[in-house]
Every structure is written in C-alpha cells, then in structure tokens.
Amino acid sequence: MIRFLLNDQPHAIDNCDPNMTVLEYLRNELKENSSKEGCASGDCGACTVVLAELVDDELNYRTANSCITFVGNLHGKQLITAAHLKEQDKLHPVQQAMVDKHGSQCGFCTPGIVMSLFALQKRSDHYERGETLEALSGNLCRCTGYRPIMDAAVQMYEPAEDDQFTRNAEHTKKSLNKINGDADEVVTLSNGEHHYYAPATLQQAVELIASHPKARLVRGGTDLALEVTQHLRTIPEMIDLSRVKELNKLTVTDTEIVIGGARSLDSSVETLKNYYPEFADMLARFAAKQVRQQGSFGGNIGNASPIGDTPPVLLALNANLTLKSASHCRDVALEDFFTDYRQTLLKSDELIGDILIPLPEENAHLKVYKISKRQDDDISAVLAAFNLSVVDGVISKASLGFGGMAATPKRAKATEAALIGQPFNQATIDNAKQQLAVDFQPLSDMRASSEYRLEVSRNLLQKAFIEIGLELQQENDSPLFVDATQTRICSHA
Ligand SMILES: Cc1cc2nc3c(=O)[nH]c(=O)nc-3n(C[C@H](O)[C@H](O)[C@H](O)COP(=O)(O)OP(=O)(O)OC[C@H]3O[C@@H](n4cnc5c(N)ncnc54)[C@H](O)[C@@H]3O)c2cc1C
Ligand code: FES
Ligand code: FES
C-alpha cells in the first residue's frame, strides 16, 4: 500500500496498477484536473506538481513531472497541486503575482508554471534571476513569453503573511514522520497482475532482484516511464530504488567522490561544483529542474543510451562502478561497462550501487561541452568531455569521452594516443583532430548529421585547446592580454 499526504490529508492507494502515473491518478481517479497533460513525456511542464519530503527533519519542496512519475513514487511524501494553493477565496501569493503581472494567457501551461514558482519560493527567500530561469527551464510557455512570468517571480516574494504550508509545517512534518514510521518496510503496490516493490535497504533491494529476476529497476522513472506513456508498454514488475538509503548517499574520500546509484542528479551538483565545476555546469543543462530532481546517475548509466550526458564525462574522469547483487559485489571500469547499443555488463541479478569518481589530479584540466539545438531541456547531439594533463608543455595524460558519436558512450582512444606525449600546441591538436574520424563514424539522425557531429567534435577539441591554454597561462602567471599601448611602436594614448 502506498501512503502519502494529498495536500494536508493522509491518503492511501491500494489495489492499483503500478504502471499508473501520478497525473493519471489525479485526473482519472481523483477527478482533480488542475495538472494538465501536454506531452506525457516530461518535456512541457504542464503537469508539474510539487513533492515535499522530510530531509534532516526539514521539509524539502521540489517539482516533478507527474506525467512520468509512477504513483508508487509518492510513498512517504506530500503531494501538492495547483488546486491546493488557494485558501478559501484567497489566491496563493504565487498565483496572485501571475494574475497581477499577466503571466497567464492560455491557462494550460499556467498550473505547471505556478507549481515551479511555488517550489522555488519555498526553497529561497528572494528573487534571483538565474535561479528563476533554472526553475522555469522545464515549463514551456509559447504565448505570453516569459517576461511577465519573470515579473510574477519578483512579486511572489512579497506576501504580507505566511502561507498555509508554512503555518502547517510542524503538523505536516508530524504526519510525514508517522507515514514513514516503519522506515525499513518494503512498500508494495499491486493490482494482482502487475507488481511494484520499494525496498528501504540495499539488502532488501538485492534480495528482491534475486527473487524477481524479470522485474525492471526504476529510480526516477524519467526514462522508464516513457516506455509506458510513449510506447504504451506495460511493465509487469518494478523494483523502485528511490527509498534505498545506501544508494542515496554522496561521500568524498581522500581519493574519490562516491555517488550512490539512486542519488538524484540535482542533489549532487553542489559537491561536484567543488571538484569539477565544468561537470556541474553541464548538469545545469541536463533536462530541466523537474527531471534532474527526480532522475539519477544510476538511471542515466543503467539506461545505456548513446546520448546520455553523464557517461561521457564519467568516462573522461576514469570513473568506476560498483555492481551489487545478493551474492557478490564487483567493481568495473565504466569504460568496460557499455558493450554494445544499449547493452552493458550488468547481470540480471545486479544493480549499479556506487559511481566512483577519482578526485582531480594535479595538472589535469577538464572541459565539458553539450551541443544541443536548445539551451535548456534538450537531448544532446554531441556531448564531449576532455580531461588533459599538461606538464612542462607536454600532454602527459588524455582521456576523452564522447556521447552521440557511436552506439555507446565511448572513449576516443586513437585521438588520445595522438595527444599523449606530444607538445601542447596547435600542430598536435590538428593531428589529433584527424584521429577523431578513426575513433568515430557517427550516425545521421534528427538531432544532427554524421558530418556535423564529426566537425563539431573537432571544433570542440580546438575549443578545449584554447581554453586549457588560457588556464595554463593563468597558472604560470603570464598576463593573458598585453596592454595594447605597449605593443605599438607609436602610442597615441
Ligand atoms: C524531458 C526529459 C529530458 C531529458 N534530458 C536528458 C538530458 O539532457 N540528458 C540525459 O542524459 N538524459 C536526459 N533524459 C533522460 C533521463 O532523465 C536520464 O537518463 C536520467 O538520468 C534517468 O534517471 P532515472 O532515475 O529517472 O532512471 P529510470 O527511468 O528510473 O531508469 C532508467 C533505466 O536505468 C535502469 N536503472 C535505474 N537505476 C538503476 C540502478 N541503480 N542500477 C541499474 N539499473 C538502473 C532502469 O532499470 C531503467 O532501465 C531526459 C528525460 C526526459 C523525460
Ligand atoms: S505533460 Fe508535458 S511534462 Fe508532463
Ligand atoms: S500561457 Fe500557456 S502557453 Fe503561454
């Protein structure tokens, strides 16, 4: 049985097909129609709801695309929709701001936009433009434009008094604590035909996998749910890893960053910023806030898509994976993990436990570039990650990871060989660029042609060379730009 708070009321779901999404449950079962269906694929944001969870005994508000969130994922959380914001006849400050600033025209996308702004208002106490753009990056509005919506975001921080959610926070925490009382139980949901299990511990998870070898693993569902909503398949058995404590941790040791396979992408960004800011910057362009808060590293790797964004970066960083089953635990290099198109080394009784990322080496420079048609919320045509070490003007190490260039995320071994041991100069880069055609014969598809992919990869290597060159200049304390007057024979200054 799934138990959660529907706004402020305890709610339970039993005897239900676990393939049902939260949006379907709201609209078809509860007849609560404030959340809209635009795309049913996580792209438009019209179905955005807010999920509040207890994190260190505080309420953490985040958004989710209800169209691709399985109903089982609600367990232990508070579900808030646009219909819950109003108090008697009084609109919530976020709704009032949207009215005052004319942020709503069609009304179809508006509930999702309101929920993204509401979650933002709960997370921060003042307007910040970058943060607001990020919060709205998964909400498409095609008629008003975003200007009045941004104006509403400025106004929404000016309520005269606390809203009902702040006033009721202690009560909400108590109710959530009660629901989550037996933290170690395996939560289940079934309609007799299709079954869902949400273990709380790693041991429970691997035992469930052993006893249900055909079950599909799910964490955020931001890939898996599309099999149901877009390809109209039914998943007979699911094991949800999102509650497994051991898989949600993030630790930094003296040699590596260890990210649990079920940890959300969004909650790892702050730590990654300290070690690999380029990686963290790329994650800001991975899907949109809703998807990053729900989706995981384990899901991105386990999905084994050739256009997944984290694998190329992790390949360039020489990351390893810990694969765990009920009977064993083994470490594999990510480089060996992808064996063919959507094929991996993962055995049917295993899950991706930890992602192990070595800490930055001295003299190493990481550059990550995501090429897509849109800045936000778009799948990459090419993702290139360059990790080069330069010592005394010579490239001592090079690991290059690419996505969108082959049937799997892949290292560029021939290009690496052309770089290692060579002077860090244009001639070396020109030679290495030719080797990219040895490493890759990319496909043409709707995102880019084969020729474009190869050309853009060469250009990105050039870009990395220029940017790393500038960093080396700064490290060696040489001025980047010489005062123009000093370079002239005759100064008119
Ligand atoms: C609108 C939208 C935009 C997107 N944009 C991007 C993007 O820009 N870049 C990008 O790379 N991806 C993107 N994605 C894809 C998706 O969000 C990511 O791949 C995400 O990381 C998947 O994580 P998840 O937890 O939701 O995976 P799930 O959907 O839960 O699972 C995905 C697959 O991995 C398996 N799996 C999950 N966890 C584990 C585990 N611990 N061990 C073994 N197998 C596991 C599942 O069985 C399933 O086959 C986008 C998706 C949507 C809907
Ligand atoms: S309906 Fe478009 S994101 Fe859910
Ligand atoms: S207000 Fe709905 S598309 Fe812009």
What's the architecture of the largest domain in CATH terms? 2-Layer Sandwich
Q: Give average pLDDT, whole number.
A: 95
Question: What's the shape?
Answer: globular
> What small molecules accompany the polymer chains?
flavin-adenine dinucleotide, FE2/S2 (inorganic) cluster
> How many individual β-strands?
20
CATH-assigned homologous superfamily of the largest domain: CO dehydrogenase flavoprotein, C-terminal domain
Separate helix tally: 19
What is the C-level CATH assignment of the largest domain? Answer: Alpha Beta
- The low-confidence runs, each spanning 5 or more residues with pLDDT under 50, are 480-489
- The neighbouring-strand order within the major sheet is 2-1-5-3-4
Radius of gyration based on Cα positions? 24 Å
Instruction: Tell me the domain tally.
Output: 2
Task: Give your account of this protein's structure.
- Keywords: FAD, Flavoprotein, Iron, Metal-binding, Oxidoreductase.
- Residues 1-85 form the 2Fe-2S ferredoxin-type domain.
- InterPro entries: 2Fe-2S-bd, 2Fe-2S-bd_dom_sf, 2Fe-2S_ferredoxin-like_sf, 2Fe-2S_ferredoxin-type, 2Fe2S_fd_BS, Ald_Oxase/xanthine_DH-like, Beta-grasp_dom_sf, CO_DH_flav_C.
- It holds the Pfam family FAD_binding_5.
- Residues 189-362 form the FAD-binding PCMH-type domain.
- This protein has helices at residues 22-29, 93-100, 110-123, 129-136, 147-155, 164-167, 169-179, 202-211, 224-229, 269-275, 277-283, 289-294, 297-302, 310-316, 334-337, 413-419, 426-439, 450-475, 484-487; strands at 2-6, 9-13, 48-55, 58-65, 78-80, 187-190, 195-198, 216-218, 237-240, 250-252, 256-260, 320-324, 329-333, 338-340, 343-344, 351-358, 364-371, 382-391, 394-403, 410-411.
- It is α+β, with helices and mostly antiparallel strands.
- It folds into 2 domains: 1-179, Beta-grasp domain (Ubiquitin-like (UB roll)), CATH 3.10.20.30; 249-475, Enolase-like, domain 1, CATH 3.30.390.50.
- It has a 5-stranded mixed sheet. Strands 10-11-16-12-13 form a 5-stranded antiparallel sheet. A 4-stranded mixed sheet has the order 6-7-9-8, covered by helices on one side.
- α2 (93-100) packs across α5 (147-155) and α17 packs antiparallel against α18.
- It is globular.
- The model is unreliable at 480-489 (pLDDT under 50).
- The structure holds flavin-adenine dinucleotide and FE2/S2 (inorganic) cluster (FES) (2 copies).
